[in-house]
Amino acid sequence: MSSEPAAPPRTAAGRADEARPLASVGDIGYALYPVVPLRWLAGLARLRGRLQYLVRRAERQVVGANVRDILGNAPPALTREVTRRWFENQQIQNLLVTLTPRMATPDLERALPLEGLERLDRALAAGKGVLLLGTHLNSVSLWMAVVLLRRRGYDVRVALPIRRDPWAQTRLRMALDRRAGRTGLREQIGAFYAQFNIRPIVAALGQRAAVAMTGDGWHSASFVPVEFLGRTLPFTTGAMGVARSAGAMVVPAIMAGEPLTGVRAVLEEPFTVARTDQPRADLSAAVQRFAGLLDAHVRRHLAGWQHLSVPDVLGTMADWQQKPLAERYIV
């Protein structure tokens, strides 16, 4: 287990200083919504993504190389299009997750339709808790789905690997929220700190809650080989190990499509992880099932896969388990 993060410095008044920036580009959309239509704000975000595609040469080369590696002998024009859309999608998703705390429920439902809600209902009815297993395909949309589910009355919580708020607001946004009586995204998704300790997650599952986390991350002590994007690659067993230990149902939550042009939260068929006298085989079968679902969606919606920004992503995945444990635990 990695060590606790260092405590933030103290101000003269003795309060924790989180070094929050005064403002950010995202605050423009946050302040203008809903005075300015969402489609206009998304159009501006798309333009910003296109600009980044043009000026961020090193990142463009990394994403483009990964796209070529995955698509194989695709025409260069297709590689360029997917790469450009990746930059656009990142900006639109960042806009949407920034706006989520102040978006009305009908607007959220239009931006991210939920598909397969009856499957989550069926899994929760088993009374063992549910692992809502997201991915790095349109990953930030998972947190929008969590907000939607909580607003519909579902007890969904999010396990965080670090204490630092990954959605920390700027001081300007905090002031706007205080004035309107709103909470931030971390509060709205029911986030709790778990680090690499399964106890808080198992405790939440024991309370029959649904715990959302990503299942295709790399920060793990244990992996199994699976077939993914035409290669044999190691996938972490962490999430499936928790589900197996707790007897919880697993509901893969795939954010398929592209932001504002057909993205949706697809809640796949629930399943349990077998508990035989061969735990590694049990985990391997469950992880392969999950990886197969992700593989099918990534192939259809490659421009939404966040990991394309990792240099030689497939090679990195193949070699990741060779890294020292302490390095694998760094988030």
Structural notes for this entry:
With 331 residues, this protein is α/β, with parallel strands linked by helices. It is 47% helix and 13% strand. The protein contains 14 helices and 9 strands. The strands form 2 sheets. A 7-stranded mixed sheet has the order 1-9-8-2-5-3-4, sandwiched between helices. Strands 6-7 form a two-stranded antiparallel ribbon. α3 packs across α4 and α4 packs parallel to α7. It is globular and about 60 Å long.
Helix content: 40-55%
Average pLDDT for all residues: 89
Low-confidence stretches: 1-17
- The secondary-structure element order is HHHHHEHEHEHHEHEEEHEEHHH
Biggest β-sheet: count, sense, barrel? 7 strands, mixed
Q: What number of domains?
A: 1
Strand residue percentage? 5-15%
Number of helices: 14
Strand order of the largest sheet: 1-9-8-2-5-3-4
Radius of gyration: 20 Å
Ends: how far apart? Answer: 12 Å
List keywords for this structure.
331 residues, single chain, alpha/beta, two-stranded antiparallel sheet, disordered N terminus, 7-stranded mixed β-sheet
Please outline the helices and strands.
Blueprint: H1 26-32, H2 38-55, H3 57-71, H4 76-99, H5 105-111, E1 114-115, H6 117-125, E2 130-134, H7 140-151, E3 156-160, H8 171-180, H9 185-188, E4 191-193, H10 199-206, E5 210-214, E6 223-228, E7 231-236, H11 238-246, E8 249-256, E9 264-267, H12 279-300, H13 313-319, H14 325-328
Parallel strand pairs: 1-9, 2-5, 2-8, 3-4, 3-5
Antiparallel strand pairs: 6-7, 8-9
Helix pairs in contact: 1-4, 2-4, 3-4, 4-7, 10-11
